[in-house]
Amino acid sequence: MTTDAPVVTHALPGPTDDFLTKLVGVYMDVHANPELSMQEHRTAGIAAAWLREQGYDVTEGVGGTGVVGLLRNGEGPVVLLRADMDALPIKENTDLAYASDKTGTDRFGQATSIAHSCGHDMHVAWLMGATRILAENRRMWRGTVMAVFQPGEETGQGARAMIEDGMVKRFPKPEVTLAQHVMPLAAGQIGWRIGTILSAGDSWEVTLFGRGAHGSMPQKSIDPVVMAASAVMRLQTVVSREVAMTDSAVVTVGTMSAGMNENVIPDRALLRLNVRTFKDQVRTRVLAAIKRILEAEAAASGAPKPPEFSVLSEFPLTRNDEAATEKAVAALQRHFGDDRVTEIAPATASEDFGLFGAAWDVPTVFWVIGGIDPVTYANAQKAGKLDELPANHASDFAPVIHPTLRTGVEAMLAAAGAWICSPATRAA
Length: 428
Ligand SMILES: [Zn+2]
Ligand SMILES: [Zn+2]
Hints:
The protein folds into two domains: 17-197 and 317-425, Zn peptidases (Aminopeptidase), CATH 3.40.630; 200-315, 2-Layer Sandwich (Alpha-Beta Plaits), CATH 3.30.70. 35% of the residues lie in helices and 25% in strands. It has helices at 17-32, 41-53, 120-136, 158-164, 167-170, 224-242, 280-301, 322-336, 354-360, 374-382, 401-420, and strands at 57-62, 66-73, 78-84, 103-105, 111-113, 143-150, 176-186, 190-192, 195-198, 200-209, 213-214, 249-257, 264-265, 268-277, 308-315, 318-320, 341-343, 364-372. The longest helix is centred in the last third of the chain and has 22 residues, at 280-301. The protein starts with 16 loop residues before the first helix and ends in an 8-residue tail after the last helix. Bound molecules: zinc ion (ZN) (2 copies). The site of one zinc ion (ZN) has 5 residues, from loops.
C-alpha cells in the first residue's frame, strides 16, 4: 500500500439542495406514472438513461424490465444496491398534486387503477440519487457499484426473473446486497434488525366447484357460495387453533367471488388468499391446514370434484446477515446518530430481495425508512392510534417527501460506504 493513496473517508456527501429539488421532480414524475409489476417499461427507461448519463455500464431487459448498472472504480468490493420499481392495482386516494390517475390491465386480465401505494417510486428516486452521488465522487471510494432496478416485487416475480435471466453469470459477484423500503415509521427514522426482518409470504388462488341451478331450486344445486363462505370462516381457525401462542401467522382471504345474479346459483367460487409466517415449520403447517380445510369443505358439501389450487406468489423469509448488518448499522448510526437508527420487530410484509443474496450466497442487508410526517406520527403515538396511520398498500399511503427522500439517499450511501469507502479496501 502506498502512503500517497487518496484519503478515503466514510463521508460520501448527501444531495445538495439543488440536486434534491431535481430528485423531487423525478419522484413526482414516477409517482404520477406508476406501472404494474413486470410492466415497468417507462420507469426502467428513466433509470437506464439516468445511469448511462452518469457513466454506468447499463444492461436493460434483465428478467423483463430489470436494469443493472455497473460503475467500476478500481480494486475493491462489489456492492449490490437494489430498488424495486413496480406499483399496485389500487386507486390512489390522496389529494397530492402529483397523484396517479393511471389505469392498466393487471396479471389477471382485469382493468384496474394503478398507484405507487407501496412507495417503490421513493425507492427508485433514492437509488437514482445515490448512484449519481457515487458517480460524482469517485475519488472517495473504491470498488464496483452494481445498481439494480428490479421489476415485479409485489408479485414475487421480479428477483426470480432476473436470476433466471442469468444475473449470477452475467454480473460480478457482490460482497453484500443492500436494499431499503419506506414504511410507516416517522419520516427520517431508520429501522433495522438482525436475522428475520420480514415474513415469508404465500399467495394462492383456489377454485371451489359446485353445481349451478336456479336460485329457487337449491335442491338441484351444490352451492359453491355456501361452500366458500363456510371455508373462509373455518380458515380463520388455522391461526387461532393450529399455531402456537409463541409463534405467529396471518391467513387473509383477500378475494372471494362467485356468481353474477341473485337468482342463479353459480357452479364455482374463487378465493385468493395470502399467508405470512416467520418460521419454515409454521409455514408448512399453515399451508397444509389451508389445503386440508378447503378439500374437506368441498367434500362436506358433496362437491363434484376437489378444489383446484394455484400458486400466485411465493416470497422467502427476508433474513439479515448478522455481521453485514452490524457493519451497515454502524455506518448508519455514524451518519444519522443513534436516535434515528433503531432496532425494530419483524414485520409481516414480504420481499423477494433475499433471493439475490441467496443466488450468490452472499449476505442480505435490508432496512426500512419512515415516511410518515413526524408530527402526525407523534400525535398518533400519543393517542395510541399508530395502527390508524395509512400503511403500505393503503390507497391513501404516500410518504412525505421531506425528509424521506434525503434520508434514503444518504442511508444507501452510508451503508454502501461501509464496504467501498473503508480504508482497508483502498487500491494499493
Ligand atoms: Zn408492497
Ligand atoms: Zn414494497
